[in-house]
Input
Amino acid sequence: MNKPFRGKSVRVLPGSAAVMAAVLVQAVPATTATSAAATAARTAAAAPQGLSCDTGKHAVDDHTGYALCRNNGSTTQTFWVHLVCGWSPDVDGEHVTLSPGQSGQSTAHCAGLGTGIGEIHVRP
Output
């Protein structure tokens, strides 16, 4: 079937739209809403042993991320936040050393020209 397009003809193959849609569905990851329990499970799994951490984006600046951790272990621990920044280079926050029972925060900032924070990790 020929369809005119600005003075030129374009040939559309039968079923090609369905094939292209199937390719696009496989190429683009699906995003799903996560529950608070699933988010907490991911955060707990990402924290090094002996630390309990909360991670997130800054309330006003989507390019700034943090890890707020408490040392629940019996030895001194050091951690830092690692941000996956999309198109910009990934960045690490300041290294924070905590004695047993102490809490502390590490922050980092993705470049403003990129797509913002894609993932937040806590590194030992």
